[in-house]
């Protein structure tokens, strides 16, 4: 039997957060409802950040309230601080994610905190979630390159990974936020992170700006990673990472994984339909 590799769908969050045009809540709900039929175990649908910083995610509570929850699917949300965590709980997010960075420049630009300050803010979120029985995922941005600080030392990523591990994150997603990583830098970064966190607790999150995301996924597969974040239609970017193009497209990752002999358990016809819907929402020709 083919080995299972999970694609964690992040399109409704990472894909749409960057949109200038306000996307109607009903359209977001329709996208999530379609994705819920594709076979994902986890879909990131919401982000409880400051609406002043990311207006596109201001209706996250309404999105979570409006979707038809499919059994067995975990609907995830970003929570940068306790205020975000409380909003996520109220909205019924099944799991939450704290998100830090490997570089000071990006941490400051994205969440207005140094790396150390951000970890202090995450700690109570992780503790509260533990008490509530809510799984917490961790993200690290800029794992190979930073739009502010340049190339990133693998050890800097490993340090933050160790801190998130110690807070109890069940999985740590390693983000090539600006899509500048190449298999060599991804491999070197993973070698350092694997000293701290085993492959079963890591995920790859590759943006595709440099068109190397699929190659980077292969490099990460070689290091034992079996979870990859992706966004239908290749949507995405990060509002605080200039030049961050779309996440790697879910449909492309699913096809590459199938070619490599892995099973993703996904229905490609539903994913293709969702990719068309997502592109149309952005005003890009389907
Ligand atoms: P701050 O201004 O330092 O926060 O922002 P503050 O604590 O000083 O509060 C300022 C105001 O924001 C207050 O309101 C707070 O109540 C409010 P006021 O009194 O002025 O009316 N506030 C909130 N409101 C709603 N929800 C909250 C919240 N927190 C404070 N949770 C903060 C700090 C972290 C809030 C801000 O910087 C922020 O929201 N940043 C989010 C940026 C973001 O969402 N970036 C994109 C996601 S990360 C990403 O895409 C990367 C990833 O995909 C991986 C990768 O690709 O690398 C995950
Ligand atoms: Mg991202």
UniProtKB/TrEMBL annotation:
<dbReference type="InterPro" id="IPR013785">
    <property type="entry name" value="Aldolase_TIM"/>
</dbReference>
<dbReference type="Pfam" id="PF00682">
    <property type="entry name" value="HMGL-like"/>
</dbReference>
<keyword id="KW-0456">Lyase</keyword>
<comment type="similarity">
    <text>Belongs to the HMG-CoA lyase family.</text>
</comment>
<protein>
    <submittedName>
        <fullName>Hydroxymethylglutaryl-CoA lyase</fullName>
    </submittedName>
</protein>
<dbReference type="InterPro" id="IPR043594">
    <property type="entry name" value="HMGL"/>
</dbReference>
<keyword id="KW-0479">Metal-binding</keyword>
<dbReference type="InterPro" id="IPR000891">
    <property type="entry name" value="PYR_CT"/>
</dbReference>
<feature type="domain" description="Pyruvate carboxyltransferase">
    <location>
        <begin position="5"/>
        <end position="272"/>
    </location>
</feature>
<dbReference type="GO" id="GO:0016829">
    <property type="term" value="F:lyase activity"/>
</dbReference>
